[in-house]
Amino acid sequence: MINCIKVERARHNMSQSDLAEKLGVTRQTIYAIEHKKFVPSTVLALKMASIFGIPVEQIFQLEEQD
User: Fold this and answer.
1) How many CA atoms lie within 13 A of 13 on its CB side?
2) SS3 call for 37
3) pLDDT digits (tens, 9 = 90+) for 18-31
4) Which residues contact 62 (CB under 8 A, 6 or more apart)?
């Protein structure tokens, strides 16, 4: 799975901690998602999309081997 959370955080001038606080998760969770060590739940992905004001498909995309 490809994700562009880091890019969106930069566009919104947010740190991992800022995003984590808005989502009610830890900074480590954001780090793990960004580094493909953890796949977020649907609810968490939708909350993230809402925070960034974009469709979830713009944040997360399947890779061919997925």
Assistant:
1) 0
2) coil
3) 999 999 999 999 99
4) 1, 2
48-59 tens-digit pLDDT: 999 999 999 999
Amino acid at 31: Y
Tokens of 28: 């480590």
The total number of residues written for the chain in this structure: 66
Domain 2-61 -> CATH class: mainly alpha
Beta bridge mates, 3: 60
Are 9 and 16 in contact by the 8 Å Cβ rule? The answer is yes
Q: Is residue 59 within 8 Å of 8, Cβ to Cβ? A: yes
Domain boundaries, the chain: 2-61
> Could you say which DSSP state residue 41 is in?
P
Kind and range of the H or E element at 18? Answer: helix 16-23
